[in-house]
Write a structure and sequence with these properties.
The protein has about 130 residues and is mainly β. The chain has one domain. Helices cover about 5% and strands about 45% of the residues. The chain is built from one helix and ten strands; from the N terminus they run βββββαβββββ. The strands form three sheets. A five-stranded antiparallel beta sheet has the order 5-4-3-7-6, with helices on one face. The two termini are about 25 Å apart. The model has no long low-confidence stretch (mean pLDDT about 85).
Length: about 130
């Protein structure tokens, strides 16, 4: 197993070391501006629980990417209107995606990604190359 180390956000004043199994990452995205931390890491089996870390999304993605294509960028789809800051980019680990299915008819079209742990993520059409 390959691990990457990050500083987990526990309180604004203290950081705990977090070691992440790179193979257990579902997807990574930037935190909303109103949250503590810069990046959220979604892991296998955690459900709605996420790991907030102090490193930027670019640093996290580069630390988790062993080779080109190990994380694929896509735009998140929201059933409600997107946040004021706009739709976020998510960096998905394709090895943990069970399947992708289009959700039609929808305007605009989007895809539902189902992960191996049963969790789901919606991304905007067209589906990124590599998924």
């Amino acid at each position: 197993m390959l691990f990457a180390a990050f500083n987990k956000v526990a309180d604004p004043g203290s950081c705990d070391d977090l070691r992440v199994n790179k193979e257990a990452v579902l997807y990574v995205e930037a935190s909303r501006p109103d949250l503590v931390g810069h990046t959220m890491i979604h892991m296998l089996g955690q459900g709605s629980t996420v790991n907030a870390v102090t490193e930027s999304v670019g640093t996290v993605v580069s630390s988790l990417s062993d080779k080109p294509g190990s994380l694929v960028a896509a735009t998140r789809h929201y059933l409600a209107p997107p946040p004021d800051s706009g739709a976020s980019t998510v960096y998905i680990s394709p090895v943990n995606v069970s399947y992708a299915r289009p959700n039609q008819p929808a305007s605009p079209d989007f895809w539902v990604l189902r992960f191996v742990d049963g969790s789901e993520l919606r991304v905007v059409h067209p589906l990124s190359e590599g998924l």
